[in-house]
Amino acid sequence: MTASFSNLSLAEPLARAVAEMGYETMTPIQEQAIPVVLTGRDVMGAAQTGTGKTAAFSLPLLQRMLKHENPSTSPARHPVRALVLLPTRELAVQVAQQVELYAKYTQLRSAVVFGGMDMKPQTAELKKGVEVLVATPGRLLDHIEAKNAVLNQVEYVVLDEADRMLDIGFLPDLQRILSYLPKQRTTLLFSATFSPEIKRLASSYLQDPVTIEVARPNQTASTVEQRFYSVPDDDKRRALKQLIRERGITQAFVFVNSKLGCARLARSLEREGLRATALHGDKSQEERLKALNAFKAGEVDLLVCTDVAARGLDIKDVPAVFNFDVPFNAEDYVHRIGRTGRAGASGLAMSFAGGGNDTRLVADIEKLIKMKIELEPIEFEEDRPRGRINDGRRHWREEGEAGDARDVLDMPRERAPEGRRAPRPYRPAAAPRDPFFDKPYEAGQDSENPPAWEAAARSASPAQRNMSTNIRAKRKVAALFKATPTP
């Protein structure tokens, strides 16, 4: 039986905020993690993306920090007590918004810092004092070095999407940040995949953690239908458009492996009339937020993005995900398709494999998710044979057979209203034929008037006639200066 939030005995401000957000029953990760975090134990949690990990660590931490809330305006009375580290800007903004909603009726302050924008507004926010600091590792180190953030009173640390942070190369930054924190603290580590590197990180910084696995690590959501198509690289765009049209997909993520490929594909789709935009690491923070807001508002149908958007983006009711490129890391496949089928909804994930290196990458995914993958061929509409009437062109059906309903030439013509002539189908006018070219060849009988080239050959001098036709005769040119004979 699924537990209810009303059974958690949350403080009244938190319970009111949770009720306003429409939370009633807990997800498996919330049901198992929240009671453990409330006791102050370290946690190592494995859960699929989209299962409510943010509430699983935010609510118990806020509950434990209520003893520190105070109405004072002094920054010294509001030191950083909880630090949440995340790999990407988008995920940091999303978690910060959730924390702010949970703490809506408390006097606890929160802030978010990330790269790609000016530090001054973030510095001003930190100087006011905050209890909960959500940050990306790189920008947090900038504020630590500028002495804008003091972490000597931190009691709780959350490493969310820890495997992604290691993939990006944040391990040295994480080690530096953790060295600034007190030794006595509660550390929570959440990840969708448990790699050997994650286990080494946990053994180094977690003390006797409670391991929580609500699903087998690296398992994909059961609500997502997964399809793999064998498509050559040059035909992937055609396959994408055809599947969107055939399945009636209104919105979708389209994942590619490179920033350049992301920008090119988005521009190509826009030129073909689709509402698409790109989201990748080379865009400024303002551009990335603008693209996300347009996608959430329904102004954009296809969000073409790299793996920077595959972690933690919580956009509800996205029906499909396309892997335009098979991901280099099999773990990224789990996170990519986790963008659809969230919170129990059904979803569709379609991947295009072009052969060559893609075959090996698909085999890696198959090994990771422990599921047999069948590559399906895709037949393009324009390649299918269509019926033709026999009016001098190649025909695809025997005389008397029913034609293809898709062929306008085989469709019955509509009768025009009385008093109006039915418009005739446009046919280009045939070019006029020259009867000269229909006559058989006849040798010329006018020997007195030979062709021009024969006449020219006859009039040439004997010396010129003996000369090769490929050699041009010298031309006599008047001398500008007369040579003076030397005495």
From TrEMBL:
InterPro entries xrefs: DEAD/DEAH_box_helicase_dom (IPR011545), DEAD/DEAH_RhlB (IPR044742), DEAD_box_RNA_helicase (IPR050079), Helicase_ATP-bd (IPR014001), Helicase_C-like (IPR001650), P-loop_NTPase (IPR027417), RNA-helicase_DEAD-box_CS (IPR000629), RNA_helicase_DEAD_Q_motif (IPR014014)
EC primary class: hydrolase
MF terms (GO), sorted A to Z: helicase activity; hydrolase activity
Region feature (Disordered): 386-472
Motif (Q motif): 3-31
EC number: 3.6.4.-
Keyword ATP-binding: yes
Biased composition (Low complexity): 450-463
Top-level taxon in the UniProt lineage: Bacteria
Biased composition (Basic and acidic residues): 386-421
Keywords from the UniProt entry: ATP-binding, Helicase, Hydrolase, Nucleotide-binding
Sequence ranges assigned to domain Helicase ATP-binding in this UniProt record: 34-212
Pfam families: DEAD, Helicase_C
Nucleotide-binding among keywords: yes
Similarity comment text for this entry: Belongs to the DEAD box helicase family.
Protein name per the record: DEAD/DEAH box helicase
Organism encoding this protein: Variovorax dokdonensis
Phylogenetic lineage: Bacteria, Pseudomonadati, Pseudomonadota, Betaproteobacteria, Burkholderiales
